[in-house]
Specification:
Blueprint: E1 2-5, H1 6-9, H2 11-16, E2 37-40, E3 43-46, E4 54-60, E5 65-70, H3 76-94, H4 97-102, H5 113-116
Domain PI3K/PI4K catalytic: 40-118
InterPro entries: DDR_Repair_Kinase, Kinase-like_dom_sf, PI3/4_kinase_cat_dom
Protein name: PI3K/PI4K catalytic domain-containing protein
């Protein structure tokens, strides 16, 4: 893995990340407080797999980190099917008391190709 600094590779993203009034992608739940994007961590990790996806960490207004995998030049339909599969897995995990107690889930968020091109 290699590390990219956002201040060098995407300075606007790093600079404007603190002023956004946007919800953290995939975090919206009705009747719950909105979790907003409070910033973006400066380091972007480039994975060593075939397509070199990037791992981006968004800081939530609730103090938690939200990690996203950014991929470009891919067929997003395949990613959508994988997300549906993980949704099914989450449903099955939540039906078991032990996994529910341990809060075991997996939450990928599909983004358009343009989202990966800051």
């Amino acid at each position: 893995m290699s590390i990219l600094e956002l201040t060098v590779t995407a300075p606007r993203l790093q600079a404007y990340g603190k002023d956004w009034q946007l919800a953290v992608p995939g975090s919206y739940k009705p009747q719950r407080p909105l979790i907003r994007m409070a910033g973006v961590k400066n380091c972007l990790t480039v994975m060593t797999s075939k397509q070199h996806p990037r791992r981006l960490t968004i800081l939530g207004s609730n103090g938690q980190n939200y990690v996203f995998l950014l991929k470009g030049h891919e067929d997003t339909r395949q990613d959508e099917r994988i997300m549906q599969f993980f949704g099914l897995v989450n449903t099955l995990l939540m039906s078991e008391p032990e996994t529910l107690r341990r809060n075991l889930t997996y939450a990928p968020v599909l983004s358009s190709q343009s989202f990966a091109n800051f």
